[in-house]
Amino acid sequence: MKLSETVAFRVREILAERKISQSQLEKLSTIHRGTMNDLLGGVYKTVNMKTVYLIVKALEMSMSDFFNHSIFEREDIEVD
């Protein structure tokens, strides 16, 4: 699993838990629809930390809370 896929998984999970739409997140984070679609759709091979930061702040979370999830503890995460 790619790092970008783990981030996308985590974002989708939080959106579902909080009943927030992708469109709402785009507005809150000021991230363009195309960028968000590519991120959540697994198009990107890498993850831009600025994008992650904007998402995390829009969700009113800390970075440590966002990354404090078992998915980021997997041994098979690819980072290229």
What does the model show?
- The protein is built from five helices and no strands.
- Helix 2 packs across helix 4.
- It starts with a helix and ends in a 13-residue tail after the last helix.
- Helix content is 59%, strand content 0%.
- It has one domain: lambda repressor-like DNA-binding domains (434 Repressor (Amino-terminal Domain), Orthogonal Bundle), CATH 1.10.260.
- The chain is mainly alpha-helical and 80 residues long.
Layout of secondary structure:
Elements: H1 3-18, H2 22-29, H3 33-40, H4 49-58, H5 63-67
Helix pairs in contact: 2-4
Number of domains: 1
Q: How far apart are the first and last residues' alpha carbons, in Å?
A: 11 Å
| Rg over C-alpha atoms, rounded to the nearest angstrom | 12 Å
Helix content: 55-70%
> In terms of structural class, how would the helical and strand content be classed?
mainly alpha
CATH topology: 434 Repressor (Amino-terminal Domain)
**What's the CATH H-level homologous superfamily?**
lambda repressor-like DNA-binding domains
Catalogue the unreliable spans.
none
What is the CATH class designation? Mainly Alpha
Major sheet attributes: none
Q: Any guess at the CATH architecture?
A: Orthogonal Bundle
Write a short abstract of this structure.
This protein has 80 residues and is an all-alpha fold. 59% of the residues lie in helices and 0% in strands.
Q: Which key phrases capture this entry?
A:
single chain; 80 residues; mainly alpha; 434 Repressor (Amino-terminal Domain); 5 helices; 59% helix
